[in-house]
Specification:
Helix content is 16%, strand content 40%. The protein contains four helices and 31 strands. It has a 15-stranded mixed sheet that branches. Strands 23, 26, 27, 29, 30 and 31 form a six-stranded mixed sheet that branches. The protein has a four-stranded parallel sheet with strand order 5-8-10-12. Helix 1 (2-27) packs antiparallel against helix 4. The longest helix is centred in the last third of the chain and has 27 residues, at 398-424.
């Protein structure tokens, strides 16, 4: 009998060790590059060879410090639908300290498919782009709305910023700044170019210009370009810092502007475009009535109210809306995961349907879809997820994996004990 008890105790100990070791291993696995896992994003960045393109993939929702991308690096940060929360650690040299990411001279960086946010302790969430560096934001939520200060995409001379896909920049407590600085290491160049071509939301005042007093700053500002082709903008465009004679370099050929002073953007419209109820449209093709949306916002046909959607854990569910008079802006889905952030845009979710793969952690999450055209928007009813059944862990779900390992070990122990009883009879 004592041998059987010792055997059972040994199996239980093995199960406990497996559970603890799997948790310990996962604790240090923040990101992956070329099959190798790293404890921090900075460690992975440091391993990228100059002259090569590397993809660093975030493995789970992660909190970490700021990251410096050295000169000459070419990196894609694939957030893989996860969130990187920047805490109060700072990076950068004196005068360029930032909470977020600093792209040094000549680097090329793209962020895609996820969220970068600042926590409430962070002074500021900022992506600082130095000379000749290039940045792309594709299907990203850049969320600085919780930081005490503002949320910047800040650009020094000669670089390019591309905001594409369904990227949203949320800066409710400050501004989205596209700044142009004089950086004395090679002349004035052609300034920075910022291309905004996104189905997402730019939530904050856009400050365009310079905040320096160096000689030649007026030339820099004149040569810089801010090109807006698409997006929903909630704030004004401010050029108060410009040191020019009205040559702002701003060109707008699309977008939907919801701020009360939207009429101020008329000064920057590209030739052949006009502003109609906050929407920038072609002057020659808008008023033909063919799309059925003239003069009216969209209307939701279904769902007409709130509903609870039951789904198996680690299964699949598709949420859909049916609407009429859908125009510019189309669709944007929002989610409230009950984490105190309220409803936030779902990156890349700009269609009439949204397919989800929920786990138990998503139980109670709420979704709705905002449908837009040039005359306004309407929100669908709210979908509330009720996640039931299923115990198969999703890859990367450490809690489920640990629980699964323990249950398997206990099952083995139980079977071993039953076998031992049979042999003793």
């Amino acid at each position: 009998m004592r041998c059987k008890q010792k055997f059972l105790a040994l199996l239980l100990a093995v199960a406990l060790v497996l559970a603890m070791s799997s948790t310990a291993l996962a604790a240090g696995e923040v990101c992956e590059m070329n099959g190798t896992k790293y404890d921090t994003l900075q460690e992975a960045v440091n391993e990228v060879a100059d002259g090569t393109e590397a993809t660093i993939t975030l493995l789970d929702d992660t909190t970490g410090g700021g990251v410096i991308v050295p000169s000459g690096k070419n990196i894609i940060f694939d957030l893989d639908d996860h969130t990187y929360t920047v805490n109060d650690n700072t990076v950068g040299s004196p005068g360029t300290v930032t909470n977020g990411f600093q792209l040094l001279k000549g680097s090329t960086v793209a962020f895609k498919n996820g969220t970068i946010k600042g926590d409430t302790a962070a002074k500021i969430l900022k992506i600082l782009i130095q000379n000749y560096a290039n940045l792309t934001l594709n299907n990203v939520i850049l969320d600085g709305s919780q930081a005490p200060n503002c949320d910047y995409v800040c650009s020094n001379n000669f670089g390019t910023v591309n905001i594409t896909g369904s990227t949203s920049i949320l800066a409710k407590k400050g501004a989205v700044a596209f700044d142009v600085y004089y950086w004395p290491d090679g002349g004035y160049g052609d300034g920075v170019t910022v291309n905004v071509d996104t189905a997402g939301i730019i939530d904050g005042r856009i400050e365009y210009g310079s905040d320096g007093t160096e000689a030649g700053i007026a030339d820099i500002a004149q040569n810089a370009k801010l090109i807006i082709q698409k997006g929903t903008f909630t704030g004004e465009i401010s050029t108060s810092n410009l040191n020019t004679d009205g040559a702002t370099g701003i060109t707008i050929s699309g977008g939907y502007f919801t701020n009360p002073d939207a009429s101020t953007i008329e000064n920057y419209l590209a030739p052949g475009y006009k502003l109609v109820n906050g929407e920038v449209v072609s002057a020659s093709s808008h008023d033909d009535g063919d799309d059925g949306s003239i003069g009216y916002p969209p209307a939701i046909l279904s769902p007409t109210g709130n509903q609870v959607v039951a789904v198996m854990a680690n299964g699949t569910v598709t949420l859909s809306v049916d609407a009429t008079r859908v125009g510019f802006g189309g669709y944007q889905w929002y989610v409230n995961r009950g984490d105190g952030q309220g409803f936030v845009p779902v990156a890349g979710a700009t269609g009439a349907s949204l397919t989800l793969y929920p786990t138990f952690a998503d139980n109670g999450s709420q979704y709705y879809c905002q449908v837009m055209n040039g005359y306004g928007y309407v929100n669908s009813g709210c979908f509330t997820l009720s996640v039931v059944g299923g115990m198969v862990p999703k890859t990367g779900d450490q809690v489920s994996v640990t629980l699964w390992v323990c249950l398997m070990a206990l099952g083995v122990a139980g079977a071993a004990a039953a076998l031992a009883r049979r042999r003793s009879r």
